[in-house]
User: Which sequence fits this backbone?
């Protein structure tokens, strides 16, 4: 069944940059308000949420890179376009907003494509949560990541931070960052498992796109299964984990990619995966 699928190569983004490789397999999202260190607005939140929801049905995009323009990743919610209006909203409006921001994280997690974040400079607040929602993070020595919600009088529990951050860097380190709001240095991020690797600022985006290309040209269906299981198994006991993986792997063994890999191995060649 392919009636619900459509290409996203020529998606016309309104509130951030969007471009795809020639074959449409690797998409790059660029947060592009460099004069303010690429903050999010109500509109960019909503468009990012809707885009990642739509990528479930993409017929071409197999991996996504997300980066910022001008030497910074994302400074969080725009102070005057989001923070100031929030101080004047009633509870129902505030809850609609916080649910929308959380929906962006859920949409990124539910999108089948692996997401690679290229993080340079400031990565703060909601920007840090976008980075956390990615599956793979590359940074630069200049990257500074801060979950600074407490700095503005809010809880460190925002957009899933209290559940997701401990899974990446550990409970104690997550508690320190979420209570204090201090910035995690690039060196700490690399040592704690936040970053998969550090690269020079001039090359981090290209390195992220290399990773995305590697994933996009790999066993696409199997990668979607891996991402699903990584997200689901935190809520499972050991018996459920093993049974779920048994079913998932058996399903992958029915794909032509599995047969292609065997045939290539037998012929002493490199497999060419087609994602089916």
Assistant:
């Amino acid at each position: 069944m392919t009636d619900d699928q459509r290409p996203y190569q020529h998606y016309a983004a309104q509130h951030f940059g969007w471009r795809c490789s020639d074959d449409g397999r690797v998409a790059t999202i660029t947060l592009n308000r460099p004069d303010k260190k690429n903050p999010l607005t109500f509109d960019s939140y909503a468009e990012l949420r809707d885009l990642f929801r739509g990528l479930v049905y993409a017929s071409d995009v197999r991996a996504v890179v997300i980066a910022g323009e001008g030497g910074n990743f994302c400074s969080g919610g725009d102070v005057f376009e989001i923070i100031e209006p929030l101080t004047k909203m009633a509870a129902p409006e505030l809850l609609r907003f916080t649910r929308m921001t959380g929906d962006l994280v859920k949409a990124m997690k539910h999108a089948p494509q692996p997401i690679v974040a290229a993080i340079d400079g400031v990565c703060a607040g909601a920007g840090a949560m976008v980075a956390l929602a990615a599956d793979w993070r590359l940074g630069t020595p200049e990257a500074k990541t801060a979950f600074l919600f407490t700095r503005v009088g809010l809880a460190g529990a925002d957009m899933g931070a209290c559940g997701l951050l401990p899974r990446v860097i550990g409970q104690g380190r997550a508690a320190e960052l979420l209570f204090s709001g201090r910035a995690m240095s690039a060196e700490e991020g690399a040592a704690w498992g936040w970053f998969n690797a550090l690269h020079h600022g001039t090359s981090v985006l290209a390195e992220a796109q290399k990773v995305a290309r590697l994933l996009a040209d790999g066993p696409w269906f199997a990668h979607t299964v891996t991402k699903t299981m990584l997200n689901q198994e935190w809520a499972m006991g050991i018996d459920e984990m093993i049974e779920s993986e048994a079913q998932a792997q058996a399903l992958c063994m029915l794909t032509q990619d599995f047969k292609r890999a065997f045939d290539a191995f037998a012929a002493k060649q490199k497999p060419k995966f087609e994602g089916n």
Remarks:
- The chain has two domains: 17-216, 220-266.
- The chain has a mean pLDDT of 95.
- The longest strand covers residues 26-31.
